Amino acid sequence: MTNKYGRLMLDIEGKSLSEEDKNIISSSPVGGIIFFSKNFESYEQIKNLINEIKNIKENIIFAVDHEGGRVQRFNSDFTKIPSMQEISNFARNNNDSSIFKDIGWLASSELVAVGIDINFAPVLDINKNNSTVIGDRSFSNKKFEVLEYASHYIDGMHEAGMKTTGKHFPGHGGVLEDSHTELPIDNRGLYELHMNDMSPYSNLGNKLNAVMCAHIVYPKIHDKIPSFSERWLKDILRDDLDYKGLVFSDDLTMSGAGDDLCWEKVEKSLKAGCDMALICNDRKGAKESIDYMNYTGVEFSEEISILKSNKKLEWHDIEITSRAKEVKNIIKDIGDMHEKNSNRT
């Protein structure tokens, strides 16, 4: 069983473990835990919670959405990271894109210090200024800036020992709808996507440890969302783009993933080529999926083990470094510039 991981990533319900949480974590199909704001109180609390989970199961990875801006689950004690768009505006204004590496390093170092293995970042979507869910989460509406800025950010993440996830493949920035609440349709063809939204994956794929799929249908390419589509995951991502890393579904409880039962969506995503399936904030669906996988025979993955962070960092050691202090000063300058610009409009 060494280095074999279950292929479900689930959440827990609170800031400490219930008996039901413990039973779920110990079940064979579970190989990952994703944390939300509901699970976080402080640096010490989340570190202790992660250690408690490690005592239940060794082969498990810990993930969080820590993009910055409006998507940052851990706030108090942690450095508040600006949105990627705010950093981009500052970098452009100062003609210095290297700040992305430093901010990526600081954000990731704090996560690694508490035991997080993988941050579901960076967002590689090219913002078309019409997306309700992406918006300022994107680095830019220009693909060359997305490539440059994201590359620096990834380098900073890796320097800290943090694993990266490019999302949302093949691109969420071209649709208005929010896939949390409905299924978006993108009518662009494969050539246009190759030339634009997919360029971060073709250019940065060798730097990405994982990719997360978009819950969007692209009818000119396939009638299924990428998480359920061998056409997207095997033919295009693996073969055409020569991508070698891991693949996550996005949260299968989102409306964009359809109305099937959770276990049916898990089955479809793993069959299509996802290495790990996410079920968030749906305990009933999570338990049914565990039962389904136990009944059919648990599929394990050795590849998931590469997502474990192998770096040991101490919180205090990070906070007292001159680099951390300099980056925090830059973040303050970014906030000041954003507030000044906001007051003008």
Please give a quick description of this structure.
This protein is an alpha/beta fold and 345 residues long.
Features:
345 residues, alpha/beta, two-stranded antiparallel ribbon, 12 helices, 41% helix, globular
Can you give a write-up of this model?
- The model has no long low-confidence stretch (mean pLDDT about 95).
- α3 crosses α12, α4 packs across α12 and α9 packs across α10.
- The protein has about 350 residues and is of the alpha/beta class.
- The longest helix has 23 residues.
- It has 12 helices and 10 strands.
- The strands form 2 sheets. Strands 1-2-3-6-7-8-9-10 form an 8-stranded parallel barrel, surrounded by 4 helices. It has a two-stranded antiparallel sheet with strand order 4-5.
Alpha carbon gap, first and last residue: 58 Å
The average pLDDT is 93
Poorly predicted runs: none
Please write the string of helix (H) and strand (E) elements: EHEHEEEHHEHEHHEHEHEHHH
Strand content: 5-15%
Q: Please give the number of β-strands.
A: 10
Strand order of the largest sheet: 1-2-3-6-7-8-9-10
Q: Helix count, per DSSP? A: 12
Q: What is the 3D form?
A: globular
* Helicity level: 40-55%
Structural class: alpha/beta
How large, in whole angstroms, is the Cα Rg? 19 Å
Main beta sheet: strand number and arrangement? 8 strands, parallel, barrel
